[in-house]
Write a structure and sequence with these properties.
The protein has 17 helices and eleven strands. It has 384 residues and is an alpha/beta fold. Helix 1 crosses helix 12, helix 14 runs antiparallel to helix 15 and helix 15 runs antiparallel to helix 16. The structure holds NADPH dihydro-nicotinamide-adenine-dinucleotide phosphate and magnesium ion. The site of magnesium ion has 4 residues, from helix 7. Pathway: Isoprenoid biosynthesis; isopentenyl diphosphate biosynthesis via DXP pathway; isopentenyl diphosphate from 1-deoxy-D-xylulose 5-phosphate: step 1/6.
């Protein structure tokens, strides 16, 4: 079956790799919608190559340029996501790929789920911030989420219809570039150092999150919602080679693992072709070359973000949204060199401490909480 797809965040790291997967399977997909924010040049190139019906752009300056450049093509350029549900319906979509970074990626995913359109989800923030709302919508419309995040894709592929016998999940983490630094050295880490990830090549925000282990924390919350496993039974394990992408533990003592090279195109392809599994020409794993696979306990003293995420997840309700928003701002401040590396967990923790959880909320309320946490985070930084 040929799938009509929308690729949201097509100019990013996941977006570009998704298009590489599509190039491998040209007859299986029609790109109907692409979207970007500030990278006009790349978005323009993609528009000319894939000839989508719509290009959605969320940055005003980019919009003006694209509208002019694409005026002679039968491609509609739209500013902002207000009309996104209408556009989804017009192009008769089979799958939306949610690959925008940060909380900005949530509304377009929720809009797809509301319409009963399946989503291949890279944007973990959707689940972390709005997990309860996502579940509510899925119950109503039956839309599926197929995980793109490599760990969750691994778990998804290791769940072989024996979900009731699952006793736990082991989520692997590379440990980031600073695994072996002393606490003193961690205080001196710069954005340039943090952006140099040992095994994965990713967008800036998630690369910093990998260095603080916040990415693993967000993934634990993501796994809790996606696979209905209690936090007590989800553990993170450091695996520097990034070959085992995660594991499912079963009550009979079996452990099922998914192995592969650290190449996001593999989980992206599985999410796109699901329920089918297809061949591709990407490099394949040779275990004789890798030789050793190590597994180590994460150091939560040096990397407090992991426990902050567990805490936010266990408290639940609006707390994961606060964790996410405060972290987005803290990472931004670190990238601008306004705060140090170890100030990231400090700021996030302080914002969490100030938050009074709300037990009944809709998406609009979550947006308010998100906004509050961002402002609070900046205020705390100003007092530092
Ligand atoms: P990038 O920073 O590389 O790309 C982000 C994409 O989102 C770009 O297309 C960017 O547009 C767009 N974007 C940024 N801000 C906005 C905004 N305010 N409104 C609309 N669009 C926006 O990120 P990644 O590709 O690395 O990550 C995307 C998502 O996937 C994240 O949620 C991340 O956690 C998740 N993920 C990524 C992995 C990876 O290997 N990269 C692995 C697992 C999950 P532009 O560039 O044009 O400004
Ligand atoms: Mg991941």
């Amino acid at each position: 079956m040929v799938k009509n797809i929308a690729l949201l965040g097509s100019t990013g790291s996941i977006g570009v790799q998704t298009l590489e997967v599509i190039d491998e399977h040209k007859d299986d997909f029609i790109v109907k919608i692409i979207s970007g924010h500030k990278n006009v040049q790349r978005l323009l190139e993609q528009a000319l190559k894939y000839k989508p019906e719509y290009v959605i752009v969320t940055h005003e300056k980019s919009y003006e340029i694209l509208k002019k450049e694409l005026s002679t093509f039968p491609i509609k350029v739209i500013l902002g996501e207000k009309e996104i549900a209408k556009v989804y319906q017009e192009v008769n979509l089979d799958l939306v790929i949610g690959a925008i970074s940060g909380a900005a990626g949530i509304p377009s995913v929720l809009a797809a789920l509301e319409l009963g359109i399946d989503v291949a989800l890279a944007n973990k923030e959707t689940i972390v911030v709005a997990g309860n709302i996502v579940k509510r919508i899925q119950k109503k419309t039956g839309a599926k989420i197929i995980p793109v995040d490599s760990e969750h894709s691994a778990i998804f592929q290791c769940l072989t219809g024996h979900e009731k016998a699952v006793s736990g999940l082991l989520i692997t983490a590379s440990g980031g570039p600073f695994r072996n630094l002393s606490p003193d050295e961690l205080h001196k880490v710069t954005p340039e150092m943090a952006l140099n990830h040992p095994t994965w090549s990713m967008g800036n925000k998630i690369t910093i999150d990998s260095a603080t282990l916040m990415n693993k924390g967000l993934e634990i919350i993501e796994a809790h919602f996606l696979f209905n496993v209690a936090y007590e039974n989800i553990n993170a394990i450091i695996h520097p080679q990034s070959i085992v992408h995660s594991m499912v533990l079963y009550g009979d003592g079996s452990v099922l693992a998914h192995l592969g090279l650290p190449d996001m195109r593999v989980p992206i392809q599985y999410a796109l072709t699901y329920p089918e599994r297809k061949n591709n020409s990407f490099p394949k794993l040779d275990l004789l070359k890798i030789k050793e696979l190590e597994f180590l306990k994460p150091d939560t003293e040096k990397f407090p973000c992991l426990n902050l995420a567990y805490r936010a997840g266990k408290i639940g309700y609006t707390m994961p949204a606060v964790l996410n928003a405060a972290n987005e701002i803290a990472v931004e401040l670190f990238m601008q060199k306004d705060i140090g590396f170890m100030d990231i967990p400090k700021l996030v923790e302080e914002v969490m401490q100030k938050h009074e959880i709300v037990k009944e909320f809709d998406f609009k309320d979550l947006l308010e909480v998100d906004k509050w946490a961002r402002i609070e985070c900046k205020k705390i930084k100003d007092r530092m």
